[in-house]
Amino acid sequence: MELTLNNVLIFSDLHITQSSLKECISILEEIGMLANKYNCDTLINLGDTFDNLKPTSSELDIFSTFIRRLNKKIIIIAADSHESTTQEESIINHFGILNNMVTVVKEFKDANHLYCGHFSIKESSKNYDAKLSKEDLKQYLYCFLGHIHTHELIKPNIVHVGSCRYTNFDEARDKQKIVVLITDYGTEVEKVHFMKLKYPIPMIQLELKINNDSQGSKDTVKGENVSRTSQNQANSPSNKALSDIIAKLDKTDPKTKVKVVIKDFESFRGFLPFVNKYTTKFEIFKYETDFTVVSIDTQKCRDTETKSFKESFTFWLRQQNVDQKVREILEKEIE
Questions:
Q1: Which of 162, 179, 196 is the last residue of a domain?
Q2: pLDDT value at position 215?
Q3: pTM here?
Q4: Are 192 and 221 in the same domain?
C-alpha cells in the first residue's frame, strides 16, 4: 500500500475500558485536534484500541464517534493481543466495513519507506516472546511499533511509540505520553516529530519503608505485641518516612493515578488509617505490600488440641484484636 499524503499522525495502545471512558474521550479529542492543526491526511493507529475482545457499547461508541468526527483516512492495526480472536477475526474489522475512510490491516507497509506493526522485537526492553529482530526490519526508513507501552527508540530506525495513556503502573516512570507526526511525507524535507499529549492522566508510584532492620523486607512479629507496637511506631510524628509519603500524597493533584508499595509491616500498620482518605481523593488509588512476615515466637501459638502449627496459629490470630488485612497476610505466610 502506497500513501499519497502530506502529513501523517501515528498513535498507539489506547486500551479503552469502561472505567477510562472520560480520559479516552479527552485523548481522542486531542488527537483529532492535532490531526486538524497539522493538516494530516491520514492517521495510523498501531493497535490495542480496546482492552478486551468484547468491548462494551460505550467503549465502541467513543471510538466510532472519533472516526466520524475525524472524517480523515485512518489505518488501524488489528492487534492480536487484545482485539483479535484469530489472525483473521477482530472486532476492529467492523470499523472498516462500516466506514470507507477506515482501512484495517495486521501490518502496514509503504514500500521501503514506512512500516507499522504491533509487536515487540528481540531488542525491545520488554521483548516477551519476540520472533523478529531489528535486522528483519532494516530495509525500512522508519518502523513504528505498538504493543510496548513505554516510548523507546531502537536505533537506527525502530520506535515503540508507547501507549496514549498510562494503563498500568509499570509505566509510572514514563515522563510523558506521545504521538508521532510525520510532516512532508515522502519529500526531501520530511521530518518526524514526537509530540507530547496533554490529556493522559498522570501516574506515580511511591515506596514506603519504615523498618531499617538488616533483615531487609522480613519483619519480626513477637506475639500479641505486634498490633500495639507497630501501630505506635508507624503513627509516631517522628516517623519521617510515613510523614513524607503523606505530605507527597496531600500535595498530589487528585486527578492522578497513584500506587503505594509498602515495604515492611510497620509501614503497613501506619499507612492503613489513610487508605480510605486517598482512595476517595485520587482518580485511581492502589496499594500493595512487598514484605514477608515471620514469627519467632511460635511456641506461644501452639495449642495441644490442634494438629498443626498452622491450625493453632490461625486460631490464635482470630482470638486477637488484629486488623483483618494484617491477619490475612499472616495467615497466607504460613500456608
A1: 196
A2: 44
A3: 0.79
A4: no
